[in-house]
Every structure is written in C-alpha cells, then in structure tokens.
Amino acid sequence: MLGDYASKDYLLRKTPRALVKRWLFPYSGLIFIPISIWLDVIDFNPILVAIVTILAILPVTRLMARATWDLSMRTNPTIGSLLNATFGNAIEFMIAAFAIKAGLVAMVKASLAGSIILSVLSIVGLSMIFGGIKYREQRFNRDAAGVASTMLLVAVAGLSLPTIYTVITGRPGIIMSHAVAITLGTTYLLSLVFVLFTHRHLFEARHDVSERPTWGWGQAALVLLLTTVAAAVESEILVSVLRPIVETTRLHEVFIGVVVIGIITNIPEHLAAIRFGLRDNITLSLEIGMNSAIQIALFVAPILVLVSPLLGTRLSLSFAPFQMVAMILAVMIINYIGSDGICNWLEGVQLVAVYIIIAIAIYFL
Predict the structure, then answer these.
(1) What CATH class does 80-212+231-363 carry?
(2) Helix/strand/coil (H, E, C) string of the chain?
(3) pTM value?
(4) Domain locations along the chain
(5) Which of 7, 117, 153, 269 is deepest in the core (most CB within 10 A)?
C-alpha cells in the first residue's frame, strides 16, 4: 500500500500542471540569469543591470532555500537551522568579497551590520507575525534562545570595541581588528561544539512532519552547488554596477549595504523562518534568525577581515557609530522579547517596526 501511494504521489508530481506549479512559475525568474550576464557584457545602464540581477538572485535564493530545506529535513533540527543560515550567508560572503575587491569597504561594513540587524529583527519578527496570524501564542525553547542571545551580546561586544578604539584614537585599528577577529572566530567554532555535541540536548527542536523532503541527498546537494555558483556570478555583476548607481542616484553606500544588500542576501532565511513559523515551530525560526546574525558577527566578518589583504584592501571591524548603536539596540530588544519563551504576532510587529525605523534613519544620514 505504501508503495502504491508513493507511486501515485510521484505520478502526480510529474503531470504537466504539477510541473508548472512546482517549477515553471516559482522559478521562471531564472531566465534573468543569462539576461543579466548579457546586459553586463554589453555595459548596459547600471540601474537596469542591478534590477535584472536582483530579479535573477531571487529565484536562485529560493532554490537555495528549497535545497537547504530538503537537506535540513534529512538531518536533526539544529544542523538544519545551521544549514539554512550558512548558505544564506554564503551569498552575503560572496557579495562582500567582491565589494572589498572593488574598494567598497564602507558598503561591506554596512552590509554586515545590516545583515545582523535584519536577521535579529526582520527574520524573527516576520516569522512571529506569520505564525501569530495562525496561532494565538507560540512557545519556543527558552534555553536555546538564551544561549543564542548571550552569543549575540558577545558578538556585539567584540565588534563594538574596535569601533570605540577608532572613535577615540582616530586610527583604523587593523592589528586590533585581526586579534578580535581571531578571538570571535574561535568563539564561534567552540559554540558549534557546544551546540552540536556537548550540550546538544538544550537545542532540541522538533521537525515539521506536515511536509516531507522531495529531493534526495544527491539532487538537493547538486541544486545547492549550482545555485551557489549562480549566486557568485550574480553577486559579481551586482557589485560591478553599485559604484555607478551610488554616483548617479541619491542612494548612498551605507543605505545600499544595510538595506538593499541586507535584504537580498537574507531571503533564504526569511523564507525558511516564515515557513517554520506558519507550522508552529517558532523555535527553529528563532534559531535561523539568531544563528544567521551570530554567523555574520562571529564567522563571516572575522573571515572577511583576515582574507581582505588578499583582496587588495584591509578591512577592519570598526563600524560607523550609528551602525554599532543599531546593532546594540537590535540585540537588546531580541534579548528582552526572547526571555519568556512565549511570542505572539504583536511582538513580531514590534521587531519589524524597529527595523523599518533603523532603515529610515540610515536613509537620511
């Protein structure tokens, strides 16, 4: 009987209508990949190239989210949340690396700060909103949220000290940034040992059994590999047109880094977190958002600092004071909201509202 059911389900997925619903409509934006490459080759209008490139990145990130979803469903929930965060931040890393090579250091720092703020406020907030529409209240693992909150505080402390040093002395503090980067990276690796091995029992979050993975290990891994390559190509194209856009529009580097790049690079996490929120698994939604912020602060930023000399520019961990204050506020707010183990849609609205206010303030800076 189980075999008959599986066969029928397979045939249903193979019908033309099902194929259109599952592939043609959701991923039709993949056509923008060759278009963006062609427009970049002929040196077309930078704004149009950027728009087409963003339209190409959207289905790529959606496919990436789907592949990581299938892979996460075949692992335990903690590793699943780390997979979602890691491959979302892979796009962030690629864009940042190309931007450093292009000399857009201010934009890179802004995009790192923007990703941390967005992960803590928007990803978690939207998952609470969508989950709260369906469920009156949702409960999450307070112990896991507490550990993540503490890691975020450590991350903010580590990033704030180079910023304070630069404000006081007026020097970039490259050597200090390297020392802090090594310390933060080591802390992140030790936190993985804590989460995945020595204290794994604190991070148990149930899988969502209402939807099963449809791709095998090999297929999901192949899709993840191809989307990563496509994301790298589109990231390079996007970075190549950012400087002309800054020079010809009212959008400055910091706003593009904090808001535009921050949103684009965190679409996979948004999709995954909202999906889990709708299925009353808000614990996993919080882990995705907070793990993403932790990885940016404790892993992506330190790696970029250490490899930046190879890319032709020295990157420090000294952020603009307003960006640092915004990160501190975001971490403080999520610490307070996550302290009781219960959330609702209004708390999600509050988180998203804070993010919008920060984005508005950055636009007018």
Answers:
(1) mainly alpha
(2) CHHHHHHHHHHHHHCHHHHHHHHHCCCHHHHHHHHHHHHHHCCCCHHHHHHHHHHHHHHHHHHHHHHHHHHHHCCCHHHHHHHHHHHHHHHHHHHHHHHHHCCCHHHHHHHHHHHHHHHHHHHHHHHHHHHHHHCCCEECCHHHHHHHHHHHHHHHHHHHHHHHHHHHHCCCCHHHHHHHHHHHHHHHHHHHHHHHHHCHHHHCCCCCCCCCCCCCHHHHHHHHHHHHHHHHHHHHHHHHHHHHHHHHCCCCHHHHHHHHHHHHHCHHHHHHHHHHHHCCCHHHHHHHHHHHHHHHHHHHHHHHHHHHHHHCCCCCCCCCHHHHHHHHHHHHHHHHHCCCCEECHHHHHHHHHHHHHHHHHHHCC
(3) 0.81
(4) 80-212+231-363
(5) 269
